[in-house]
């Protein structure tokens, strides 16, 4: 890869990124190294300050937010189920139509900083929640580990745990057969 295309990757020992500039404005190129930031964006920014690409990269790919949840009306406790959204690919734990999800699943929740701060069903391990609470990402998050597989290897994702999809549920009572503890599958 040409040095001009090198991108900083956190979790990988790459101390410099390459930058080309012109010395004294005379048109003679000089190669200059620029140090990477000492702290990754999730430690230096707030959710409201993230670029679109930073926001999207903060998702750990666990798939938990795509599981249906039940709320006890008396205690307000949240219970995860093993019933997934129709669009969840249970193998990759990714949405099979991320760009068109709202058209196909009208009640799909688009996470925003406001929603992250107000909902109580995001797992304690969620990157958005952790960042908003001023906590660091876990070792298995792809931004730390450098691999999108570590969330699965650590047992955090819903891979292998989805037992049904919402389009297979005939009534609301069917969800009770698929309840799991509050923190979800991990």
Q: What general outline do the C-alpha atoms trace?
A: globular
> Structural class, from secondary structure content?
alpha+beta
Give the tally of structural domains.
2
Order of helices and strands: EEHHEEEEHHHHHEE
Computed Rg: 21 Å
Q: How many H/I helices?
A: 7
Largest sheet report: 4 strands, mixed
Average pLDDT score = 83
What's the total number of strands? 8
Uncertain residue ranges: 1-24
Report strand %: 15-25%
Helical amount:
10-25%
Q: Termini, distance in Å?
A: 38 Å
Outline the structure in words.
There is one protein chain. The protein is α+β, with helices and mostly antiparallel strands and 186 residues long. The chain folds into 2 domains: 3-35, no CATH class; 41-180, no CATH class. 19% of the residues lie in helices and 19% in strands. The protein is built from 7 helices and 8 strands. The protein has helices at residues 41-44, 52-58, 101-104, 113-118, 127-132, 142-145, 150-153; strands at residues 16-23, 28-35, 67-71, 78-84, 88-89, 94-95, 164-165, 179-180. Strands 3, 4, 7 and 8 form a 4-stranded mixed sheet that branches. A two-stranded antiparallel sheet has the order 1-2. Strands 5-6 form a two-stranded antiparallel sheet. The longest helix has 7 residues, at 52-58.
Secondary-structure blueprint of this entry?
Blueprint: E1 16-23, E2 28-35, H1 41-44, H2 52-58, E3 67-71, E4 78-84, E5 88-89, E6 94-95, H3 101-104, H4 113-118, H5 127-132, H6 142-145, H7 150-153, E7 164-165, E8 179-180
